[in-house]
Write a structure and sequence with these properties.
alpha+beta, Jelly Rolls, 9 helices, cNMP-bd_dom, DNA-binding, WH_DNA-bd_sf
């Protein structure tokens, strides 16, 4: 059976029968880290279920600036808009880790949704939830400092993708400082200043494509949340 929880990712909210049918309809494909899954503005008409791994959602803004819209994780459905309405891609999806995906061609996926109204409702909840998430994210810009937003992001990434190291939690994802700045809706200059302060305080050690967080508890205290256990 599906989880039944309204906040469960699309794949996990489906029933076992739904998942079995979609596995028959779709095809599995693996993507290497940093590989492009779909490109913004291209005409492709499939949706993607992330069975494992995570992807970065980005779009090109004015003057070539890349805006990071979010990170999607295992269980999430991505590319569903073009997969359902057949329009051009509204964003680029690129793998951050090794990704195992289920590719669902548009017409079989639409037929599946027509024959399974309960699954279509889950898709509707997924899309609505992302709109609410975007609203909360924008509201956080006014209520939290860039430091708090970055701390919150790193706690999430550390808990989900971090690995234990001798002196902290190592996050190895191909996220540039530009990516991090986009994810917390601040400038690269401000992000660089925050990271420099944290390095001085020995909260983090930054690498080219990695970050060592000395203590997730310390970052949670910066956010103002209660500690709920280390990775």
């Amino acid at each position: 059976m599906g989880s039944g929880h309204p906040k469960a990712p699309f794949w996990y909210a489906l029933t076992d029968q739904h998942r079995a049918e979609l596995l028959r309809l779709g095809r599995r494909r693996d993507f290497a880290p940093e590989e492009i899954i779909v490109r913004e503005r291209e005409l492709t008409d499939f949706a993607v279920v992330l069975l494992d791994g995570c992807v970065k959602v980005s779009t090109n803004g004015v003057r070539g600036y890349q805006a990071i819209l979010g990170i999607r994780n295992a269980g999430d459905l991505v590319g569903e808009q073009a997969g359902v309405d057949g329009g051009r891609r509204s964003a680029t999806l690129s793998a951050l880790t090794r990704v195992e995906a289920l590719i669902l061609a548009a017409e079989p996926f639409r037929a599946f949704l027509r024959s399974h109204p309960d699954a279509a409702e889950i898709l509707h909840r997924t899309v609505s939830g992302r709109l609410r998430e975007a609203d909360r994210y924008r509201a956080a810009v006014g209520s939290r400092t860039p430091e708090q937003r970055l701390a919150d992001l790193l706690v999430h990434l550390g808990r989900r993708y971090g690995s234990r190291a001798d002196d902290g939690v190592l996050i190895e994802l191909p996220l540039s400082q530009e990516d991090l700045a986009g994810l917390v809706l601040t400038s690269q200059r401000t992000l660089g200043r925050v990271l420099e302060q944290w390095r001085t305080r020995r909260l983090v050690v930054t690498g080219r494509r990695s970050m060592l967080v000395r203590s997730l508890t310390d970052l949670r205290e910066l956010v103002g949340a209660e500690s709920d256990g280390e990775v």
